[in-house]
Design goal:
CATH architecture of the largest domain in chain B: 3-Layer(aba) Sandwich
CATH topology of the largest domain in chain B: Rossmann fold
CATH architecture of chain A: 3-Layer(aba) Sandwich
Largest sheet of chain B: 7 strands, mixed
CATH class of the largest domain in chain B: Alpha Beta
Helix content of chain B: 25-40%
Shape of chain A: globular
CATH superfamily of chain A: Thiamin diphosphate (ThDP)-binding fold, Pyr/PP domains
Oligomer: heterodimer
Shape of chain B: globular
Number of helices of chain B: 12
Number of domains of chain A: 1
Radius of gyration of chain A: 18 Å
Radius of gyration of chain B: 20 Å
Number of domains of chain B: 2
Distance between the termini of chain B: 52 Å
Structural class of chain A: alpha/beta
Order of helices and strands of chain A: HHHEHHEHEHEEEHEHEHH
CATH topology of chain A: Rossmann fold
Structural class of chain B: alpha/beta
CATH superfamily of the largest domain in chain B: Thiamin diphosphate (ThDP)-binding fold, Pyr/PP domains
């Protein structure tokens, strides 16, 4: 029987043996490259916040990188909607990193020209649609987009375990199920609404709700090879919903940390890559991306200081 | 009878679907009456939505992002409160916040009378005027409706179109009445426009001469040529509206006109109480009698003020 509620909060939820080993080497390396990019970017943003270089509300996705990175591997070209804590989504799906730094720094060259800051980052040219800051508000909008896409096109719509409780999210899921809209819903389930755990808020699972609306669903942990497996499995019959258990390492907003995460997916991925004899390639990716992201932040900070 | 407002809306909707790949979304659109005969009797291009007043507008916003120029129908303006969030928080902010537009054409229908009571007697365009990024209009004639539709297609702003059921069967085209030597200038909005001619006649019977300026552009506010000059000349003004007076469109417009023209301008709208179903408890668009009475009082007060009393 599938674990539910707090019992489902484990790093091997839904584990399927052998997925990582079966994945093409290039796939794993590209996935890792994106993972490293998001994580390095977010840690640089955290550092910039702690130094005072970024002085706006920031919703960082450190610890949750896999939920954006893994779906981006198979959902290229989809319309993508996220909410706050969306830097990873933006970067994974092709958003311009420089424009994201600029947005956090309040520059006119930012993704939203300084109007939005961290929560609503968008890159419409790459089909990354902006968010207005109200959690779950993007789910009805995703339905509207999905009802207008060309045949064969799809929408990926993220929301959190807190947003799952919003009435408009539930209504939109019902609409997507009724109309069989081509949307892959991904619930970013970190078990926290700010700091309130899911068990204090509700006694139901979003996967049960989805199934009752005729939307196929699965509840899994944030193993990127497992996420990819389900993204591909569901591709032949949208709408579908993947509830992904993940761990938010930092505060809801800001750069602080209350303690260690329940599990450390980043270390688990690196361990898996090591077992796959990809240590040297990993090191090479690490070096290149750390250099690139550091240079990017330094350049943008210099430009701001000169402006 | 010439082409009515309902005929105009129905025909432009039919053409929008046929020629622009347009889309109409709303609840119970294909029910009996096809929204007071304002929707073409067809299924093509018409999307019946589930009964969700919290998500429906979001569906329309998504369609707008995709360039479908959706017409989103809200059959009673009371439902605007629940539907408002995606319109004001996404569509209205979209160009400023994201750099791309989400032009939704929101048809919000005001109604009153016939036992409509506290829920269905309402007109709430005022709250949308509060929000940056929204264009708010209240067309009451066929040609006004056509003009605001053309504006929508030529621009990329979301529009809150405050319709009123009283207009649907009307084919009247209103014209401003601006005369030298008038005692008061009345700016009429929404269904009060069907009352002001009678109010003017009542006032004329009392020897009071009233100008009438018809207004359907609420935000940005536009009045006809010469209306503000006529207000200055008449030395006092009245803004009449079908929405609530308190913190409403009428008070906001009156305030602006007062500052611009330097004369007292008073607001007249729905009283600050809920409407009841029983006739004695109704709260409607200000009647001709009420508008005339308010005009008399304003003229008396203005005259007293000028005399320093």
């Amino acid at each position: 029987m599938t674990p539910r509620g707090i019992a489902a909060r484990r790093p091997d939820l839904g584990h399927i043996s052998g997925l990582a080993d079966q994945a093409p080497r290039d796939w794993s390396l590209e996935m890792y490259r994106r993972y490293k990019t998001v994580r390095t970017f977010e840690l640089a943003a955290r550092d910039a916040g702690q130094r005072g270089d970024v002085d706006i509300f920031m919703y960082l996705s450190v610890g949750q990188e896999a939920i954006s990175v893994a779906p981006s591997m198979s959902q290229k070209g989809s319309w993508v909607l996220g909410q706050h804590r969306g830097h990873g989504i933006y970067l994974s799906f092709g958003g311009n990193p420089s424009a994201l730094v600029d947005e956090l720094l309040g520059l006119p060259s930012g993704s939203n020209k300084g109007m939005g800051g961290s929560p609503p980052v968008q890159d419409i040219q790459n089909r990354v649609v902006g968010h207005n800051g109200l959690i779950g508000d993007q789910v009805p909008v995703a339905c509207g987009i999905a009802s207008c896409v060309d045949p064969g096109e799809t929408v990926v719509c993220y929301f959190g375990d807190g947003a799952a409780e919003e009435d408009f999210v539930l209504a939109a899921l019902g609409h997507a199920g009724s109309r069989q809209l081509p949307i892959l819903f991904i619930c970013d389930d970190n078990d926290l609404s700010v700091l309130t755990p899911t068990s204090d808020r509700r006694n139901w699972e979003i996967t049960d709700v989805a199934e009752s609306f005729g939307i196929r669903s699965v509840d899994i942990a944030d193993d990127p090879w497992l996420i990819d497996h389900w993204c591909k499995t569901f591709a032949d019959g949208l709408p579908a919903l993947i509830n992904i258990r993940t761990c938010r390492e930092l505060w809801h907003v800001g750069t602080g940390q209350d303690g260690p995460p329940e599990w450390d997916r980043w270390s688990l991925v690196r361990q898996q890559m090591t077992e796959m004899q990809l240590s040297r390639e990993m090191q090479s990716i690490d070096n290149a991306i750390e250099k690139e992201i550091t240079a990017l932040w330094n350049e943008r900070l210099r430009i701001r200081s000169e402006s | 009878m010439e082409r009515t407002v309902a005929d105009t809306i129905r025909e432009l909707t039919r053409r929008h679907i046929a020629e622009n790949n347009g889309l109409v979304l709303g609840q119970c659109l294909t029910a009996v009456g096809w929204v007071q005969n304002t929707i073409p009797e067809q299924l093509e291009g018409i999307q019946e939505l589930p009964m969700t007043d919290v998500a429906g507008a979001g569906f329309a916003v998504g369609a707008a992002i995709m360039g479908r120029r959706p017409i989103f129908v809200i059959r009673f303006q009371s439902f605007l409160w629940l539907n408002a969030s995606p319109i004001v928080n996404y569509a209205a902010k979209s160009k400023e916040m994201f750099g791309y537009p989400a032009p939704v054409f929101v048809r919000a229908i005001a109604s009153e009378g016939d036992g409509s009571g506290p829920l269905h007697t309402n007109c709430f365009h005022s709250m949308f005027m509060h929000m940056p990024g929204m264009v708010v209009v209240a067309p009451m004639t066929p040609s006004e409706y056509q003009a605001i539709w053309d504006h929508y297609l030529e621009n990329d702003d979301p529009m809150l179109v405050s319709e009123h059921r009283r207009s649907y069967r009307s084919d009247v085209e209103f014209e401003d009445v601006l005369e030298e030597g008038a005692d008061v200038t009345i700016f009429a909005v929404s269904a009060t426009r069907f009352e002001v001619e009678e109010a003017r006649a009542i006032l004329q019977g009392d020897g009071i001469r009233a100008n009438i300026a018809h207004v359907h552009w609420l935000k940005p506010f536009k009045a006809g040529e010469g209306a503000e000059e006529a207000l200055r000349s008449s030395r006092c003004g009245l803004v009449c509206d079908s929405a609530f007076e308190t913190c409403g469109a009428s008070q906001s417009i009156a305030y602006d006109l007062m500052l611009r023209c330097g004369v007292p301008v008073k607001a007249v709208g729905m009283h600050d109480r809920s409407s009841g179903v029983a006739r004695r408890l109704e709260n409607h668009t200000p009647s001709a009698d009420r508008i005339a009475e308010e005009a008399r009082r304003l003229i008396r007060e203005s005259a007293a003020r000028e005399r320093g009393i």
